[in-house]
Amino acid sequence: LTGESRRGEFGAIASIAAALPGPPPGETWIGDDAAVLRHGRGWLILAADTVVEGVHADLRLTGIDDLGWKAMAANLSDLAAMGATPGHALVTVAGPPDTDLDALYRGIREAAGTYRCPVVGGDLTGCPVLVVTVAVTGSVDDGDPVLRSGARPGDTLWVTGPLGASAAGLRLLQRDAGTAGSAGTAGWERDARSAHARPVPLVAAGLAARRGGATAMIDVSDGLAADLSHLADRSGAGFELTSVPVAPAATLEEALGGGEDYQLVFAAPDDAAVIAAFEGLDPPVAIGRVVADRSVRTLGGVALAPSGWQHEW
Amino acid sequence: LTGESRRGEFGAIASIAAALPGPPPGETWIGDDAAVLRHGRGWLILAADTVVEGVHADLRLTGIDDLGWKAMAANLSDLAAMGATPGHALVTVAGPPDTDLDALYRGIREAAGTYRCPVVGGDLTGCPVLVVTVAVTGSVDDGDPVLRSGARPGDTLWVTGPLGASAAGLRLLQRDAGTAGSAGTAGWERDARSAHARPVPLVAAGLAARRGGATAMIDVSDGLAADLSHLADRSGAGFELTSVPVAPAATLEEALGGGEDYQLVFAAPDDAAVIAAFEGLDPPVAIGRVVADRSVRTLGGVALAPSGWQHEW
């Protein structure tokens, strides 16, 4: 489902979702960053993501430990986008007999430890290709999780940091591979490579956004343009962006279209409450506002086409 | 990790588990059919399993809808083996662009509907090989889940039904493929093929066993000899089997070594309580008893070597 066939993926997901039973009132199943289920007096949050060698990770450019980290990080970012606290992870590994499991699980373990989401089970099996699937639980016990669908006209749109670092890092890693060595050693180049190899899920920022009154939130995994479009579609709204923070190594195109930055984009009505909630964290950047007309999707007054990968549900 | 390399799998799992942080007192993480986590006043149960085309399912013999069913059934059986009630499922599909998603999700949907474990999310991505991973939640709110580790000397050992049907069904399907058509059409032959294509997770029986006082339980996914050895190892006990119920189409070897029957094996101290708890269900069959000497592992007085697949954790 890469390239040409990726474009049909939303159609496939829509037809799958239509055939499945829907949630009871108050719950959210397919269609957000994670599923939201009532559990006791709080909410249980569930997400799962798969990383496939050669599709999501090129082991000629990054380590198998990085692949393990990324499989965890993609899921932790989904929890972050709900404003949830990570709970536990299940890790299933399907791979060839010569897979370096020690290195793979080192990356998984590092992410699990950093974000306090211990691995409690899983499965290990043979497969011609390395496929790592992580499923995570999370919880929200002091309020409601932040869906994609709650943005209201007038809300400020925020992003948790500069965009495009992962795409720029991939470009630099590919250039390195072509020139036999790390040609660029500036700090911002190292940061970009790291952003691609070890993307950082913004768990604390997601909590802060929720506590700062976020009405809608999504993580930037398919590119800002695409993911903000998902948020706008689900909220029945449009948006006017004034500016977009671009990571030092990245182009504007990479900032708008590059996936897997794991920055969070959210809408919130009260700027002061957002600033206060992020105290002690990197401050978020205001990039525009939500408007009622859902046909309005602009950056600096110019129409913004959604683009980027389409693989989440 | 098939054949030769499968034998190293327990070693790999042991080294992975040793490097991961362990559970707090009262919880069980890696090492049982599913993870057991405290959640409010009850227990949250988590399991995940992967089905790989060509490793766990041969699409020349069974349908892609059967593969979907099997991916759900393997997880539901893990919940059954804890005496848990199914909650929700996450389904991740990695596969080639020409994958028949409609048929795959039909099988998934049928299992989800039959066992009331709705699909609430997941992921869809490209991969050269079809890999379906299901993660499930379950719950136990009226007591404690049944681990593998609680069997006590003197407990009766029970199995929920005859064994070997799945292995026999695979043999019949392979014979059919060799002779261009279903050579055997007797009822027991059709039942065996169905047991292989659409294995039945015994959710109600697992609940009954728990309520009937089961001290230890496991599902037969690797073969009775292997899985009963896991239960005995974890319980620090041995066992003496007097007989084993063999499915009509199966050989004794298939009953002892064939995997993926999804029958449940459990130990319980009070035979009358077990019989009463199974009222309205197919009655379980007493096959022997637990003994204190862990070196004793016999069937009809003859030593029983563990065998079969080793792929669960």
Q: Quickly count the helices of chain A.
A: 9
Number of DSSP E strands of chain A: 12
Shape of chain A: globular
**Low-pLDDT regions of chain A:** 1-7, 308-313
| Fraction of residues in β-strands of chain A | 15-25%
Please give the alpha-carbon distance between the first and last residues of chain A.
14 Å
The interface involving the most residues is between: A-B, 64 and 65 residues
Determine the fraction of residues in helical runs of chain A and give it as a percent range. Answer: 25-40%
Helix/strand order of chain A: HEEHEHEEEHHHEHEHEHEEE
How would you sum up the major sheet of chain A? 7 strands, mixed
Can you describe what's shown?
2 copies of one chain form a homodimer. Chain A has helices at residues 9-19, 64-80, 101-114, 165-178, 187-197, 203-211, 224-235, 252-257, 271-277; strands spanning 35-39, 42-52, 85-95, 119-126, 131-140, 156-159, 216-219, 238-241, 264-268, 285-291, 297-299, 302-303. With 313 residues, the first copy, chain A, is α+β, with helices and mostly antiparallel strands. In chain A, the strands form 2 sheets. Chain A has a 7-stranded mixed beta sheet, with helices on both faces. In chain A, α2 runs parallel beside α3 and α4 crosses α5. Chain A is globular, with a radius of gyration of 19 Å. The two termini of chain A are 14 Å apart. The model of chain A is unreliable at 1-7 and 308-313 (pLDDT under 50). The interface between A and B is large, with 64 and 65 residues.
Short key terms for the protein model shown above:
homodimer, 313 residues, alpha+beta, seven-stranded mixed sheet, five-stranded mixed sheet, 9 helices, 32% helix, 24% strand, globular
